[in-house]
Amino acid sequence: MMQMERDNLLMDFYELTMAQSNFDPKSKNEIVYFDAFFRNLPLESGYAIMAGGEEIIDYIKHLHFSAEDIAYLRSLNKFTEEFLNELAAFRFTGDLYMVPDGTPVFGHEPILTVKARAIEAMFLETALLTYMNRGIKYATAAKQITLAAGDIPVMEFGARRGDNPDCASKYAYMAGCSGTSNTKVGKQYGIPVLGTMAHSMVMNEESEYVAFKKFAKAYPDDSVFLVDTIDTLHSGIPNAVRVANDYLIPTGHRLKGIRIDSGDLAYLSKQARKMLDSVGMTDAKICLSNGLTAKTIIALKNQGACMDSIGAGDNISAPKERVGVVYKLAATTKHNELVPKIKVSNDIAKVTNPGYKKVYRIYDRKTGKAMGDLVALHDEIIPTDQLELIDIENEWNRKQVTNYEAKELQVPIFKDGNLVYQEPSLEEKRVYCDDQMGTLYDEVKRLDNPDKYYVDVTKKLLNLKKELILASKTQMVIKEVDQVKQLVLK
After folding, report:
1. Which residues make beta-bridge pairs with 400?
2. Which of 87, 93, 164, 289 could form a disulfide linkage to 65, CB 3.0–4.6 angstroms apart?
3. Which of 115, 104, 122, 3 is nearest to 46 (CA)?
4. What is the sign, positive or negative, of the torsion defined by CA atoms of 435, 438, 439, 445?
5. Residue 262 to residues 142, 226, 462, Cα–Cα distance (Å)
6. 372 forms bridges with which residues in the sheet?
7. How far apart are CA 118 and CA 323, in angstroms?
8. Do residues 416 and 95 touch, judged by C-beta distance below 8 A?
9. How far apart are CA 484 and CA 490, in angstroms?
10. pLDDT digits (tens, 9 = 90+) for 175-213
C-alpha cells in the first residue's frame, strides 16, 4: 500500500463533520480561501526554513476516499449517503500556492494559500499542518547547526531519534548537512550515507585493539574509530594509533580519523590532535558528536576545539520546540463576490490578516539583501519606485524604501486541481536554500538575540483589517444591547 493511500484519512474528524454540516448541493461549489502561517519563529531563531512542500504535493495528488474508507465512514453512522457519494468521487479541483521548500520564512505571512471549494479546503488542514510543522522544524534546526559549523561538515545522525526520520534526514540535507546515517533516505534521494562503528562493536570484542583492527581490515580506506568507549586519551587514541602502525600503514593505508562522542569535547579534541600529530598522523581527521547544538558548536569553536567534522542527531531530528503553523479562513465567496474574513481575539497576536493575499520579498538593489517581506491583497499592484512598509505587528513602525525589487514568494502548485509545479531535486533545493539564506543579513541569522526581520503590510490591507475589526466589535455591541432589551422586556 502506498504511503499516500495510508494518509487518505489523515484529517481531524471535525473536518468531516463540518463538511457534512455545511453540505448543501446548491452552494457546495462556492470558493473559500485559507492561509497557512505561523506566528512565532521556532528555536529562538531569527528565521525559519520552509519545508514539507514535497509531502503536501504528494498528498494532494493522491488524495481520495477509497471504498474501504467510505465503508469505515458509513459504519460510524454520522454521514448521509449523499455526502458519502460526494466523498467517493472526491478529487482536489482547486488552486494551491506555496512558498518553495528551502525559502527562509517568517511569522504572520502566508506561506501557503488554498483557493478551493469549502469541502476540499477543509479536508486539507490536518495533513498540510502535519507536513509543514515537522518539515520546517527539521530544516530550521539543521540550518542553525550548519550555519554554526561554518566550513566544518555536519553529518546528520538522527534517524533513531526523530518522530519522522526520513523527513528529518531529507530536510537536514536540504538545509546544509553533508550526509546522513539514514540508509533508506540515502538510497531514495542520492544523499551521501555516512557512519563507522558504535560502542557495541568495541564492547563485543575482547579488547578495543581487536575491535579497531577488525574494522580496519574490513574498511582500510575508511578507518574512523570511535575512541571514547573506555578512555579516550589513555586507551582509545593509543589503540587507534597501534592499529594504524601495525596494520594500516604496512598495507599502504592511513588512519582516516577518530570520533569522540563523550566527555569534554574541547579538551579531548585538542589533546587528541596533539597525540595524532606527534606520531605523524597529521592527516587523521577528528569528528565530534554527542548531542551537539548550534550554541555548543560555537562554544567549541571559541574554545579552540579541533574538529574536522560534526555528527548531529537529536537536535536536528527531535528539537524540543514546535513551529505552530496554523490554517485559517481568509475569505469566502457569496454570489461570486469575494468576502474577506477575519478571526478576532483578545490576544492581538491571534487576530488574522483578512482577504485573498500575496506575499513579496523586498530586496535592496544595491546589496541584493532582503529588507523585509510585504503582505498585500491579491489584486494590489506593487509600485516600483517607492514603497511604504508598515510593520504587521506595530502599524506606527513605518519605512519608506526606494531602489528595491519586489519578488513574489508563493508560486502556483495546483491550478484547477492540476499539478503545474515542477518539483526540484533535493540537490537543487539544497543549492536554492543556501542561496536564499545568503540574502539575509548576518544580524538576522545570528544565534543570540537575532535582529528582527520585519514582515510588513500594505496600507490597503491594514485598512481592511481595521474595518473588519471595527465591524466585528460593532456587531458585538449590537448583540449585547439587544440582550439587555430582552431582559428589560421580561
Report:
1. 388
2. 87
3. 104
4. positive
5. 21, 10, 53
6. 362
7. 26
8. yes
9. 10
10. 999 999 999 999 999 999 988 899 999 999 999 999 999
